[in-house]
Amino acid sequence: MCLVNHPTINTTHSWRQAVSIVFKHLWISVAFFVLVLVTAVLLVIFAPRKYASQAEYLVRLGHESVSLDPIATVGETMGLHMTADSVVRSTTEVIASQSVAEKVVDRLGIDTILDRDPNQPLSLLAKAKQMFQNLDPISDREKAMVTIESGLRVHSPNQSNVINVTYFSSSPEQAHLVMQALSEVFLEEHNRINRTAGAFEFFLEQNDILLERLTAASETLMNAKKRLGVSSIAGKRGILESRMGETQAAMSENERLLATSSGRLKSLTEQLAVTPESVVTGATSGIDQQSTAVLRQQLYDLQIREKELLSKFTADHPNLQAVQRQLKEVSDIFTKMNLHDTQTSRGMNPLHQDLALQWNSESANFAAYVAASEVLSQQNEQLGKSLESLADQENEIFDLETQRDVAKAKFEAHALKLEQARLEHELGTKAITSIGVIEEPRLLQRPVSPNKPITLVLGFLIACFGAAVLPFAIEYLKDEGEMSQHVVTQVSESSSTLDSPSTMDSPSTSNRSSAAEVASLRSRIARHSGHGLIREREPGQFESAER
After folding, report:
1. What are the tens digits of pLDDT across the range 125-155?
2. How far, in Å, CA of 137 to CA of 130, rounded?
3. In angstroms, what CA-CA distances link 461 with 448, 457, 473, 497, 510?
């Protein structure tokens, strides 16, 4: 009989057969359905409740994320850019960090976190759980931290600055208590880690040091100015240059006046040399005395006029030449008079006296101009030396002013950083942060686990599916077992036939057919070898049949 056409191997169930299979194993389906529903109901009734306390925070791009720490700006800096997503991720990591969990344990206590009473004996379930945990013993503090980490859920939606934090526990009071402590610790930790500890004290100390340096540099500069007698190098240089300019202008003017006085004095000297000291003051003759007096007066006037013009103009001046001609004519007329019978009287020449007075006055002026020239020269030389000395003083004052300015610039820069550090310190002291609390932790009495509707619906669906599939699975496994047993029997019989001596000595067509059937069976057995019911023969066991 060919096993390929065995009814158990190639079975196509009709609807009638399917219904018969269901009714055949109906009690198993009903039992499975009832068992699953009862399990779901018991799970809803007796499963441990879990309660949740939730809080929501808004992460804003505040002072902590967009400003640079004063310590970070000491020295060279480079541009940094923090996005809102990176700030939210960093804040999420802070909430879920072990540091926050550790501080919550320190704040609430280990017994509160583990929800145990030291005076109350442990139940059997708690003792069994404790024995299981003692396989890898850890401290109670670490257990409390693990409890917080396992019950904490931190979630932030994409493209959102809102962080949702939920803590699950076996009692609503404990969930609310832990969530409240965790919220407080998180805000404190966020405030702490976003500010550099000791920055204000550091800049305050540096500010005192730089202030001392600035004061010392200012005092050194002031003492140097007092020692050199200057308050401002630029001001003193301006004064000296102004005085030197005035002195040089005065020297030029004095040289001009000195040259003029020298020429005037020379002219007066020449006039005195040609002017007689005495003149005839009176005479008695036959000539009209009045005419003689008039003629003599004209002569005197012309002589005085000539002297005045000589002091002002050169010898070739037309006015001077005209006066000289008139003087010559009057003098000739006066000389030609016959005064033999005249009795004369002589006296001081007024013209000579006037010229002498002018010469004396001009001599005094000339001496004054010479003395002024010497004084101005000395003053100009002294001002030049003062400017040269001021150049050396300027280098010293410039170095001291540079040191003072550098110390002042450093002090002002650190003063700004000190103010920033002071503001950071005040913000940290008053716990001012950019984290906004949208929802404070609340005490919720409604458990979040198990979810009764979902549990019952899921149990009902599993019960229905299992009750419908279980009869067919049982029937399939039963058919597979029977088929495997039948195949093993057929293989054993075929192997015995092929191994007999008569078959090996006289091969025939039937033997070749049997060998083909055995090969087909072996391939089918190989497909079902996963059940572990049949082991393949060693290679070469069917070589005689093939021959």
Report:
1. 556 666 665 666 678 888 888 888 888 999 8
2. 10
3. 22, 6, 18, 54, 56
